[in-house]
Amino acid sequence: MSGQYWKSLGDYAKEQAAQLRQLEKKSVDEAKVQKKELQSHYGKWLAWLLSLLKFARRKTFVLMGGDWVFLALLGILMAILSFTMDLGIYTCFTTRLWIYNHFKIYPALQFFTWFTLPVLLVLFSTGFVFIVSPQATGSGISEMKTIMRGVVLKEYLTFRTLIAKTVGLTAALGSGMPLGKEGALVHIGGIVGTLLSKLLTSFKGIYGNESRKTDMLATACAVGLSCSLGAPIGGVLFSIEVTSVYFAIRNYWRGFFSAVFGALMFRLLAYWSNSEGTLTTVFPTSFQVDFPYDPHELFIFALVGVFGGLSGAVFVLFHRRYVLFMRNNTRISSFLKYNRFIYPSIVSVLIASLFYPSGFGRYLATTLSTKQQVGALFANFTWLSDDLSVEQAERLSHWDVANTNLFVGLGIFMSANFFLSILASTLAVPRGSLIPIFKVGAAFGRMIGEAMYFWFPEGILCGNLHSILPGGYAIVGAAAFSAGVTHTVSISIVVVEMTGQIQHLIPILVAVIVSNVISTLLQPSIYESDIMIKQLPYLPCIISSRGAIHSIFVEDFMNRNVKYIWHGMTYGELKNLIEESQEIRSFPLLGDTEQKILLGSVQRVELIALIERHFGAERRLEAAANRYLEARKNEISRRKNSSFIVPPLAWQSVIPDPNAPIRRKVSRFEVITFSDVTATEFSGIGTQQSDERSQPETITPNLSSDSLIVTVESDVKVQSGWSFEQGIGMSPEEREEWEANEMFKVAEFKKDMIDPAPYQLVERTSLHKVHAIFSLLGVQQAYVTALGKLVGVVSLTELRKAIENANSGVLS
Q1: Which residue ranges run through the membrane (predicted)?
Q2: Helix 159-174 × helix 107-132 angle, to 10°
Q3: How many beta carbons lie within 10 A of that of residue 464, not counting itself?
């Protein structure tokens, strides 16, 4: 019969293969016919064009795996999202300004309506983000740095977070709070890239593994910054600096390709919406001079960089101190915990009141949008001139220059945005930090530039006369202060692309480098400070360059109290270990407890699954069935050896009345009761005939365990539809006794659950090497061994603490 089956199977396989060949041949013939019809109908040139397109597709799309299509879609989608948010923000701004102008004759009502809309928008953003996805709160760059390092942050790259981030950011920036959007767009870019890679099934092969997911996230971060700032080159470089410790060169073309698509589409959308007359930069400038600065001015630009570094460090310090103060103050934190909308209401009312144009806001140009404010600070004319055109005079009218000293007004603008941006950044809304600090730096640079023009109206003498350009100082100041806060050099390229002003590239680079040197020595960047505040599992860089730091080895800071499992441990010991070590995700596996030779590691979830399988319902059912069968065999054996006839009552525990309940207790085991049994099998049982009472052997052939179980099971299934296995169980006392006995059995660790090659370090591995290994490979923890013997474990927590101690000068 088996031979016939295999023969039939072979014939069937041959028939199916023949059918497939016929279908394939038919499809090829149909394609040829269609091709001939196409050639005859449209002509040979169209067929030639189609063949050329197919050839191009084979040489580009197929060879590249469709990667470039994914990158183009990513850039286009991010540009659409960024432009849509800008439209929403601008609509909120114009609506607020219209309401302010509409109630000019009612000052009290005008003031009330001025701060009402911002408060409502901030409260809406806070509530919407909290309800939809609390992970959308904050910048997002610090979280992306952590995710790209290999740490899994739950719900940070989901569609819900995308909706919360987009809507919340639009409402928060539309309220007029001194916030930016670059950080939020980096997070949005990561979410869009993740969702797009899941949505397009053809790209799953490209970004299916973890390393390619990191590549995709790096590209998405670059696109987010490019669409936010309109700077494709600077956006890629900036994203590398703020999100990556080590950047793969293979991602360069991906980042630039997608960033160019995003930036180009972002500017095209502005042109198509008639908001721009042509394709321009985000903050256009027009310094139409051949010699924009004198060589002697480079020293002044370096001093601007010094200010940018110092003020940037102060900004980061004040921001962290204020956040920690609000968090560590028990009264304030407990009050705000149960009154989520109180703090946003207070902050938004305070900031909106200070921005009131008829009050303190006349020094802050609050009737201008952010783009208009920065454009005025970058203006190519001096504000001290008495000979202004109508357009120039109208631009300065928003700054109240006529009634206030220019330097006092710029100082107020700079100070107010400095402190209010720190205050606004503590709101539980999506946000960025770059644009507010960009305005602060531009105001300081404008102040220095106007002072230089006041002192040297004809320019600094150096062979020829070169006039001072205060707008150039504003650009340098914006770049310097931004570099001091973010600790990036690529901000210089970003500023050049945002302004289109390449003539001041050398002064910008000088100021940015000086600012970076100073701020790096004093404070971490704003993004690393956020990581410290949120206590995210991210490794800081090793700053100290002392020779003694190379004498720090992994044995100096590893954890020697290692929780481990070993071959030969019981289930009870394993269960206790898991319950005592709730925070450990992976346990090292040793050969024994004496030599402690490391054999591998086992994930916590695998151990929990092992225990659940061992003590699960299936094994309990099996144990109960075995007990039942053993009891039946003992009962049958006892009755075989009995020299007297079995009374009827003795069999009622085995074969009860069919009308009795289905489940009954027999001895210590819960078993199903039997329905009527065939008279031929048990005809001699329980009869009252005196001649058969002396013949107990008549029941011997009919009471074997196998025949009994089969008969009972089939009979119960037929008459009641009830499964035999369902009727066997344990009482709570029996289950407790069984589990107690099972706890003493040896746990069996199967090969498929063991990682035979976990990350290992030797005791004398230096701190620098450990940091490099963890950063490059995305390691979460590594075991420390000595000649194969497990002596310790080092995780991100121990390594981060060791680096912080080394950076602070504690080298022991």
Answers
A1: 68-90, 111-132, 217-240, 252-272, 298-318, 338-356, 406-429, 436-456, 468-496, 508-527
A2: 170
A3: 8
